[in-house]
Amino acid sequence: MTKKVVIAMDIYGTVLTMETIVQELEKHFPKANAETILKTWRQHQLAYTWRLNSLGRFLPFSEVTRNALSHTLAETPGADLAEQHINRIMAAFENMGTFPDVGPTLSRLAVTPGVIPVVFTNGTKTMVSHSLSKSKDLAPYSAVFQDIVTVEDVKQFKPAPAVYDHLAKMVGLVSQKEDIWVISANPFDINGARNAGLKAIWIDRSLTGWTDRAEPSLEPTAVLHSLEDIIQTITHHYKDELNRHVTR
């Protein structure tokens, strides 16, 4: 690739799988209950970020995550846990495993010229740095990422426009936002990227197809079922763009 292209990868739910969290919850609850608790916890976690955006307030993502867990446990019958157990569940965020397509994808990104991979996350820099160094699946590829771009500096969460403007500033592409590709399994992240003028690839691992209708015009640039296809998709995009210019 002859131009500078930034691949901004979301980490929670896109690179890192929540299976490790389920396993930690299973030490205290049956598997079905653990999965339900995780699903509800994640819903509260994201809802809290959006509510904080609307309120014009900000808390570090680590606090948001812990508060959402407390909320989930409080509304789940028989889910009282001692503080030490909650601490262990929170610590599991630092040792989360990756989806099977992550390793091969990062290996290819490491040797693809013209591509700059960065982490782009709601998480704090401390949370993500710990994951990059402690996750047995992710640590071997930590050097692939050239930066960690978090929302901490702007004190807003995805999908606020300021977050994506901050990403563009951090990677030096404020006037070339169309060369930033946000890679995410979260529809709200896709909405935010497209709203800000960035490209966005939605990773549809559940094979459901794009059904989000929050703002129908904010569709992903591409929908893929695996991270392993992102390089080919982006390369083809620029080849097609070049061909269109040549034939004009």
Automatic annotation (TrEMBL):
Entry similarity comment: Belongs to the HAD-like hydrolase superfamily. S-2-haloalkanoic acid dehalogenase family.
Organism annotation: Aspergillus ruber (strain CBS 135680)
UniProt-listed NCBIfam families: HAD-SF-IA-v2 (TIGR01493), HAD_type_II (TIGR01428)
Signal peptide: none
Alphabetized Gene3D superfamilies for the sequence: HAD superfamily/HAD-like, Putative phosphatase, domain 2
Keyword Nucleus: no
Keywords: Hydrolase
Record-given protein name: Haloacid dehalogenase-like hydrolase
The keyword Hydrolase appears for this protein: yes
GO MF, any single term: phosphatase activity
